[in-house]
Amino acid sequence: MPQALYPPPAAGHVDLLGFYELASRLKRVRRAGWARRSPGADVESVADHSLMTALLSLVLAHERGLDELRCAAMAAVHDLAESVVGDILPDEVDPDVKHSMERDALQKILRPLGEDGSPLWRAYQEYEAGVTPEARLVHQIDKLEMALQAVSYYRDGVLGASDACEFVRGALRYIDDPEIEGYVRAAAKGAGLDCGPDVDPFISG
Q1: Got the DSSP string for 129-152?
Q2: Dihedral sign, CA of 183, 188, 189, 194?
Q3: What is the mean pLDDT of residues 30-43?
Q4: E strands in 10-157
Q5: pLDDT exceeds cutoff 80 at 198
Q6: CB under 8 Å to 26, separation ≥6 — which residues?
Q7: Among residues 154, 130, 148, which one has the least CA distance to residue 185?
Q8: Cα–Cα distance, 49 to 149 (Å, whole number)
Q9: How far apart are CA 102 and CA 119, in angstroms?
Q10: CA separation for the pair 36, 195 (Å, rounded)
Q11: Tens digits of residue pLDDT in 70-106
Q12: What is the mean pLDDT of the chain?
């Protein structure tokens, strides 16, 4: 067994460095949907996506009078398990298996924090349940951010129009919030994208 990068903490202490060692790997996990479509491009990491989702969540939660910090926490943690399991595309693993893998991975990531990791676990559980207005909003923003990144990549020449539209349509398939749908359509129109009805089932989640 390789030696741990950081020594274990004393009893009753938080192993912050052990948590960092696992969680920070998210910065090196490329978003699989972009990597599949543009394998030679320097595409965003899952951490990049999570950061922008958190920022958009803060803005839109405040606008709607929702709990901004809970929304930001859910956005920050919603893909954290991918620092261990990677960004698994929908066509690669059964959804139930994927969900189980990610829950186990997140528990592993949070274990060094002990009880101090419980707020992150609660944020993940709230997001996964998708019941509260805050959780529903963050789910919508997760897809909004993906669509906006697709438009950005189209503007930058990383994606062609057809590929960019696949991601835009994929986002719209899940978005049922009129305001957020409007942001997606306005971004696509502003970039000169005319996206039709087809949906690619293999977009990154």
Answers
A1: HT-SHHHHHHHHHHHHHHHHHHHH
A2: negative
A3: 93
A4: none
A5: no
A6: 45, 46, 47, 50, 79, 80, 82, 83
A7: 148
A8: 9
A9: 17
A10: 20
A11: 999 999 999 999 999 999 988 898 999 999 999 999 9
A12: 90
